[in-house]
Amino acid sequence: MQDDLAFARRDFYPAFWLRNSYTDNKGSLVQMNTTDIDRDIRAFLIDHFLFGRAEALRDGEPLQGNVIDSTGALELVAYLQEHFGITVEDDEVIPENLESVNKVVAYVAGKLAAKA
Prior knowledge:
By secondary structure, the chain is mainly α. It is 53% helix and 9% strand. It is globular, with a radius of gyration of 15 Å. A two-stranded antiparallel sheet has the order 1-2. It has five helices and two strands; from the N terminus they run αββαααα.
């Protein structure tokens, strides 16, 4: 029944309101849209690297060198894997996927959509 409900919800939202689901680290099925993914990633970056300074996180600005360093990139990948239940392959840790907040959100949304 829950699968039918999730499918119905996905059809209800417009294409830009991409709905995704994942199993969190407690084994519960979680429904997310790109806004939720964006919110969670921003919160992680602000809390762990910017010491609560949300204004320092800009959409188009590269994360590497401005927000995170190479160790921070590994922390971000670990967070994405644990929080969203996705696997980030070594060959996917590239600027096209992780260069900015928007690219990270799109990457995670794509990985979740592929799992669904």
